[in-house]
Specification:
Layout: H1 2-19, H2 23-27, E1 29-31, E2 37-41, E3 44-45, E4 48-49, H3 50-64, H4 69-76, H5 81-97, H6 103-116, H7 124-145
Antiparallel strand pairs: 1-2, 3-4
Helix pairs in contact: 1-6, 3-4, 3-5, 3-6, 4-5
């Protein structure tokens, strides 16, 4: 599991370096209107959308590494796992409508992350196939035992 966390950290660092955004800025919380740090994340650095960067990272890491949504959320500056789940659905919507503002962020992430992922063999869809097959095998075993 540690190798996956290190891979995720490398991807985040390399992506931030490529986008010319310090990692600290990506992970920073924004201040609310009373000057206190809230649970909201910063949204823009110079002209770069930090929200899009976080969405890309959350989606990519969730789909390509066996990390929990809680782990991913903490790594990219979200307060909890629900943000990763929500924004993963939003990223899929961006793909569906071919959002011209969002797609370049994701393409850049894939370009940066692909060389770093060459040693990582994981497909989240395989986990669901295995779990489904196990549950089917259990049901069939119970039916045959009767």
């Amino acid at each position: 599991m540690i190798q996956y966390i290190k891979a995720a950290e490398q991807i985040i660092e390399k992506y931030c370096e490529t986008m010319e955004v310090p990692v600290e800025i990506l992970l920073r919380r924004s201040k609310n209107n009373k000057g206190r740090y809230g649970t909201r994340c910063s949204r823009v650095y110079k002209t770069i959308s930090l929200s899009f960067m976080r969405q890309c990272l959350g989606y990519y890491l969730y789909k390509n590494l066996p990390l929990t949504t809680t782990q991913i959320g903490q790594m990219i500056g979200y307060s909890d796992h629900s943000s990763v789940v929500l924004y993963s659905k939003i990223v899929e919507d961006h793909f569906q409508i071919k959002d011209p503002y969002f797609i370049p962020y994701y393409d850049k992430l894939v370009e940066v992350a692909t060389p770093l992922m060459k040693d990582v063999e994981f497909d989240r869809n395989d986990i669901w196939k295995v779990r489904y097959q196990r549950s089917v095998d259990k049901r069939v075993g119970k039916l045959l035992a009767v």
